[in-house]
Write a structure and sequence with these properties.
Radius of gyration: 45 Å
Helix content: 25-40%
Shape: elongated
Strand order of the largest sheet: 2-1-3-5-4
Length: about 350
Amino acid sequence: MNRKRILAIAKLVLLFGTPLALIFGLFSCGVYCGVQNRAGITHFERDWLGLDVEVPDDATVAKAPETKAPETKAPETRAPETKAPETKAPPTTAVPPSTPSTTPSVTPPATQVPSTTPPTTGGPEPLPPPQTKVDPLDGSLAARLQLPVTVRIKVLVDPPLIEDHPDWIDYLQRTVSRASQVYEQQFGIRLELSGVGRWMVATEGMGASELLDDLRGRPREGAEILVGFTNRPFDDTTAGQADTPLPDSPFNGAYGVVYATRHHREAHLRTLLHEVAHMFGALDITDPANPAYQAGSWMSYAAVPESREPWIDVDNRQRVLMRKDLPFAPEALPTPSPAEIEP
């Protein structure tokens, strides 16, 4: 490389390098001056230029390098002698263990009322608990109301109802549970669902009496009463049928057929209340002029909206209360076939 080329390259370096070096030098000086005078610059920007900036404290800026020094931490200050064991409370000042045991005694167990809460059995959205209209009682009837009685129910369901209610088992549980809540408030009787099954019978071609006769030939399997649920609608003349004991009978009825009520969400609730009351001696109210008919007793055939609370008239309520603790009719023994009879 000759001398002329070296001179040319040197001139180019001086021509372009000098301005770049000057620019970087000014930039470095500006950064240094800005860091050293940060407080003054931010004061100027805030007070004169109106900028929203955070102004550091002058003392904080001046002492910033010293805050990073780890030598300022004195490990000697963590002396174990500073923990005074005498500050712990002596055992005699502790709360006696007998004081917490007094807390549960203020809540009596009688506040639990399981009968007012329907079981969560799934299916459609549950309805609120039925608020039955309960008339006051006095004397012997009030004492009869306090007598607890549990009645086990077995339910058979016909095919049309199963087709209409895919959740038919849950539907039966809800219906019996809600009927039990009403009976507990009106009579002190708890209805317990002990079993469910399919009722394979041609309900469309049979009357209420024939359906009841069919039930009498079926086993109750330990239940006190056997009820057949059919999807046949209540037609204002027949809501079903049930065994109704005479006033002097030593047994209550044990079999009943329950029809449906048109356009009711709980289509079998009112008729179940009606037929079970028959088994305890309650009687039908068929005269529209009867005050109990006009008031909508569930023993009448009056058209009552589903929104009205269930209610039973005074006379029929007394009949049920007086027979609530009587035994139910014994289950009929199966008739032996001719081949089973010994000569």
